[in-house]
Design the sequence.
């Protein structure tokens, strides 16, 4: 009897508990963002991960910024800048009267410290500024940045996450010569419209509004970036309203959510490209005719219309549409099995008869079905394709060693210049993870890409890019698959979102707000 | 031999096992393909940066030296630094352990609170409807993949019916941090909303995780009760006219509990293993989840650290069960 | 205790025969045991005759028909590249059967040899084998299997290898336990005294008595092996596409659970039914073979 009444009491308690957690409604002033990737560090001089940038970017400012919604550069912490005629010196005129979140004043010395720290720690983000020779303080609010050699896209690098200006105040937390890295991993030290309030590992990062921001303050009081590893879970939470906004859902999920009440799906073309690397140093793939045959064997329409439900366009050459330099007349491969078989026969493999392997990682779920489609296409021309799945880290390691035949990949530009695609993808010194993942070597191409970095005349530069595109397509260096649309899903009560193709995973928190 | 001698002997036996465990985890993480230094440095790092990182972490020394270094550091309480989070692995584990502990303990409590009574009922009503139903659901319980059960429960209770919350440990504000166990912390700070929130989030994962063990406990309890019922002294007690309930609770229960408790203790290892699938399905930020993440990214300090800790916890639990069993049944101490 | 040791062999055989007959009779009365046999039988049939029983090829993609609900042409619906799920589930039975038989077979083999060696030879051999077993048993099985599979690289064969490495200690323990018990039995000692050679003692007396507990353990383990392999594939360290392994299919179907429930549900059902069949079979085996459990109803 006692046990029975205990059971009754327990069930009442449980029911009461559940009813308290019925449909969630948003707290005013707090935006909940659902992230499917977990960030590892909040230090801009350490991180090369888009997931981290989402939290880092708005805690800091940069010398120059991307104008909202475009790829243009506008003043940030620098009110103006001059580029010397020989392209070797950038002079930044800094804004006055700004303080970092820890009270340190912002001035030319702070900028010098920032770059000292970046190069002193010497981790991956330092590579973005590898073209810098030294930083000179001219006076309190003027800085000269001297380059090793002219680099046209250089100015654009200062607007990336790697260009975040870190406060000299972090040195108060320095331990054993680590430049304050231990401390900055979990905190922020910038001039930006937000600062890091709390980080509960595995659960969420909370950004709070910086009420002393030097420019227009953010409308939101807090931004809570929740870590939700599975896209399926994120979707459920968006539908119940527990999460306000989220990205990286699959194409199928977004398609299904489009009709749902209370949900807005935002789509726009982006510079993100999905393509396939073909290792030009390996047997069979070292013959351009084999690579061309493979390019002719793919069912591009099937991939785009069925797998991606039309939210992507087929790449035309290596430079995405929308970037200056893209040539819309470049040849584009299409599925032509006859042609493919002819090319194979020409290369000495009539009817195919060999095996290749393609790698992919579960981190991008769409790659698996794409690999299956490619496998089917190759089977039609007699090539057996084996699909191998690797952990993301292992895959990148194999790419770096050249230990693979073909592999899936994707690429987004850090700065808004075609060079972001051409230099990294084709320069023979960039073999491996650095960018040239097809391990391609062509001396003519090498000359073209190096020239494009220093050519000051814009028309001549366009001509160089044209040449690069034509060679890259006729040499079939990569399988140029898709330029995908960017999709982000949010509740109707989220307002003020403005898309920026250069800040793909960093929605403009400072401008957003909640309105029911 | 005396209980104390037995305990000491068992503890001594554990030490070579722990060493063996360390060696195995060390070996495993070194068969892993991939250049750890390269991974830590990131894609656009120069060769100099990579070499510097390699040297800093001692990755350029021979294997046995690295193992020695590892064991030495372990004695100082240093489990190494995670490649990805760049924090000490111990700090990461301390962060994630409470979540797993909360989940497995909740599942364990569920099996005890529900399993023992159900087993008794099953034995008392042997072969009648209640018994048949419970036996059927037992068989289904041990046969069901945890991750599938979890998925279906979420689909049904959260997506379709909306009466239980979705994945994660808690929906709204976190309670003030004391132990890291959200339920306890909410109680300690009198935060009733957080208590209800965390309890309701705990319901499905604890059930999915514990179901298989619950099934086993019910079966065990049932068969030991039946065993005891057929013993002579129970028949005698009944013949003497003692009340049925008195018979059950006083004599049968006490004797049937022993093997059942053993099953429960030994199932803790199964719960730890099952926590992996459960934490993945319900986005529970615990150690199992962390382990899978580290394995996927070849973060070998983290992998070694967590596997070691989980193994140690398991060894500890087994030790406790062995020792308590030895107290109860003197014949075991050979 | 038998008085005539030399005749003990034939007498044992005769009583074993009648034991079998009694066992089969009692099994037929138990519906659950029959169910276990039936399910296992169906699994074997499906695995062997998959190409004839499956309506479609498990790898043929039909992109235009992707994610179609169950219908008359696709009884279990289609997956995200248009493959028929029923066919994939049927072919998946081959993989499941392969995993179970290989893992259990190899672990029985390795475990029995090592365990009997430990029990029979004693001394440092015993200590060594038992310590190594203890180390492996000190890990929760899934965690260690995951670590090994992750280290070697995701593939079904690596999962099988990992599980064999982890599982053999259980059988070693059982075999050793049996040997230790048997050594004490008087007629073993007497047989040795009379001079029946060690080898004959081994094959004719020790091994047969080991088989029962090992068989029981094996049938009980079949289900657990399958569940572990499915869980590993679900996490991502096991079977790779396009292999139609049930756990891997659930992992893929998880993203589609909301609108395309069939993708993850049917493979899960297949696992459930199969493991249930194995468990019922194991229960039946234990009822028949374990003398300690033979008591009144």
Sequence:
């Amino acid at each position: 009897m006692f046990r029975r009444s205990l059971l009754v009491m327990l069930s009442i308690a449980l029911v009461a508990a559940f009813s308290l957690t019925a449909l969630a409604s948003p707290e005013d002033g707090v935006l909940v963002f659902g992230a499917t990737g977990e960030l590892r560090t909040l230090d801009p001089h350490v991180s090369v991960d888009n997931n981290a940038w989402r939290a880092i970017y708005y805690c800091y400012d940069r010398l120059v910024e991307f104008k909202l919604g475009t790829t243009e550069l506008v003043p940030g912490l620098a009110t103006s800048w001059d580029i010397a005629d020989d392209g070797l010196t950038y002079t930044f005129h800094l804004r006055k009267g700004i303080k970092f979140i820890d009270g340190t004043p912002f001035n030319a010395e702070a900028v010098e410290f920032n770059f000292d720290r970046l190069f002193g720690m010497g981790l991956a983000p330092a590579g973005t500024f590898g073209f810098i020779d030294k930083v000179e303080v001219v006076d309190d609010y003027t800085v000269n940045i001297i380059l090793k050699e002219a680099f046209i896209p250089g100015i654009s690098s200062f607007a990336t996450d790697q260009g975040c200006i870190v406060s000299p105040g972090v040195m108060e937390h320095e331990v054993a010569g680590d430049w304050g890295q231990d401390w900055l991993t979990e905190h922020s030290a910038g001039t930006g419209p937000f600062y890091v309030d709390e980080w509960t590992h595995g659960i969420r990062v909370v950004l709070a509004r910086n009420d002393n921001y030097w420019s227009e303050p953010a409308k939101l009081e807090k931004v809570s970036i929740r870590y939700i590893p599975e896209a399926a879970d994120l979707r459920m939470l968006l539908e119940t309203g527990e999460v306000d906004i989220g990205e990286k859902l699959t194409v199928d999920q977004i398609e299904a959510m489009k009709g749902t009440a209370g949900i807005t799906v935002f789509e726009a073309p982006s510079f993100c490209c999905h393509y396939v690397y073909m290792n030009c140093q390996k047997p069979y793939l070292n013959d351009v005719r084999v690579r061309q045959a493979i390019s002719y064997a793919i069912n591009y329409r099937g991939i785009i219309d069925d797998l991606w439900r039309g939210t992507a366009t087929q790449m035309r050459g290596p430079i995405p549409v929308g970037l200056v330099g893209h040539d819309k007349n470049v040849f584009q491969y299409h599925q032509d099995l006859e042609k493919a078989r002819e090319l194979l026969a020409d290369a000495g493999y009539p009817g195919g008869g060999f095996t290749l392997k393609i790698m992919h990682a579960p981190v991008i779920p769409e790659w698996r079905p794409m690999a299956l489609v490619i496998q089917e296409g190759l089977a039609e021309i007699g090539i057996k394709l084996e699909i191998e799945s690797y952990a993301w880290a292992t895959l990148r390691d194999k790419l770096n060693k050249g230990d693979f035949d073909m592999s899936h990949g994707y690429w987004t530009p850090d700065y808004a210049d075609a060079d972001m695609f051409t230099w990294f993808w084709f320069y023979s010194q960039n073999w491996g993870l650095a960018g040239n993942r097809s391990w391609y070597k062509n001396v003519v191409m090498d000359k073209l890409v190096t020239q494009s970095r220093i050519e000051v005349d814009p028309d001549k530069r366009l001509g160089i890019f044209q040449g690069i595109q034509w060679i890259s397509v006729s040499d079939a260096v990569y399988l140029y698959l898709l330029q995908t649309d960017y999709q982000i899903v949010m509740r109707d009560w989220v307002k003020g979102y403005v898309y920026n193709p250069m800040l793909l995973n960093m929605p403009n928190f400072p401008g957003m707000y909640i309105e029911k | 031999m005396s209980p104390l001698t037995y305990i000491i002997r068992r503890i001594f036996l554990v030490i070579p096992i722990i060493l063996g465990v360390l060696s195995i985890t060390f070996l495993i993480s070194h068969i892993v393909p991939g250049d750890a230094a390269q991974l830590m440095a990131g894609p656009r790092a120069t060769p100099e940066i990579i070499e510097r990182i390699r040297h800093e972490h001692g990755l350029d020394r021979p294997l046995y030296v690295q193992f020695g270094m590892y064991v030495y550091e372990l004695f100082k309480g240093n489990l190494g630094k995670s490649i990805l989070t760049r924090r000490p692995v111990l700090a990461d584990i301390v962060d994630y352990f409470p979540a797993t502990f909360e989940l497995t303990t909740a599942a364990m409590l569920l099996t005890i609170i529900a399993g023992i009574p159900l087993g008794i009922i099953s034995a008392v009503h042997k072969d009648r409807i209640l018994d048949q139903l419970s036996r059927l659901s037992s068989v289904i319980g041990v046969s069901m993949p945890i991750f599938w059960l979890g998925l279906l429960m979420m689909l049904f209770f959260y997506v379709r019916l909306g009466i239980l919350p979705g994945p994660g440990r808690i929906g709204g504000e976190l309670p003030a941090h004391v132990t890291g166990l959200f339920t306890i912390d909410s109680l300690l700070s009198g935060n009733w909303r957080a208590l209800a929130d965390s309890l309701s989030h705990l319901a499905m994962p604890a059930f999915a995780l514990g179901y298989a063990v619950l099934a086993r406990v019910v079966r065990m309890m049932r068969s030991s009760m039946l065993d005891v019922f057929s013993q002579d002294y129970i028949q005698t007690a009944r013949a003497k006219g003692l009340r049925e309930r008195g018979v059950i609770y006083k004599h049968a229960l006490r004797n049937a509990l022993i093997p059942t408790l053993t099953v429960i203790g030994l199932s803790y290892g199964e719960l730890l293993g099952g926590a992996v699938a459960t934490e993945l399905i319900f986005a529970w930020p615990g150690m199992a989840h962390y382990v899978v993440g580290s394995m996927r990214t070849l973060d070998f300090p983290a992998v070694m650290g967590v596997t070691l800790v989980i193994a140690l916890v398991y060894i500890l639990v087994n030790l406790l069960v062995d020792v308590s069993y030895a107290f109860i049944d003197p014949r075991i101490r050979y | 205790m038998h008085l005539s040791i030399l005749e003990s062999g034939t007498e044992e055989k005769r009583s074993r025969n009648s034991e079998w007959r009694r066992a089969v009779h009692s099994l037929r009365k138990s519906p659950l045991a029959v169910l276990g046999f039936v399910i296992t039988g169906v699994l074997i049939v499906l695995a062997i005759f998959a190409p004839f029983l499956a309506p479609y090829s498990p790898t043929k993609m039909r992109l235009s028909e992707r994610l179609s609900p169950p219908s008359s042409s696709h009884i279990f619906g289609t997956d995200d590249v248009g493959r028929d799920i029923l066919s994939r589930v049927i072919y998946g039975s081959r993989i499941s059967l392969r995993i179970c038989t290989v893992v259990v077979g190899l672990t029985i083999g390795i475990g029995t040899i090592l365990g009997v060696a430990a029990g029979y030879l004693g001394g440092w051999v015993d200590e060594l084998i038992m310590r190594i077993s203890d180390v492996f048993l000190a890990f929760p099985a899934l965690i260690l299997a995951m670590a090994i599979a992750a280290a070697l690289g995701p593939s079904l064969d690596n999962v099988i290898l990992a599980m064999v490495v982890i599982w053999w200690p259980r059988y070693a323990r059982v075999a050793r336990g049996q040997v230790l018990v048997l050594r004490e039995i008087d007629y073993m000692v007497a047989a040795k005294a009379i001079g029946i050679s060690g080898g004959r003692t081994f094959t004719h007396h020790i091994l047969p008595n080991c088989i029962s507990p090992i068989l029981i353990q094996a049938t009980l383990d079949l289900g657990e092996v399958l569940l572990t392999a499915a869980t590993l594939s679900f996490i991502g360290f096991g079977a790779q596409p396009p292999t139609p392994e049930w756990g891997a299919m659930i992992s893929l179907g998880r993203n589609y659970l909301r609108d395309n429930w069939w993708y993850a549900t049917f493979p899960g059902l297949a696992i459930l039914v199969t493991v249930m069949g194995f468990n019922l079979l194991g229960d039946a085996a234990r009822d028949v073979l374990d003398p300690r459990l033979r008591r009144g109803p």
About this structure: The first helix of chain A runs from residue 2 to 20. The CA atoms of residues 265 and 430 of chain A lie 38 Å apart. Chain A touches chain B through 48 residues (CB under 8 Å). The two ends of chain A are 51 Å apart (CA to CA).
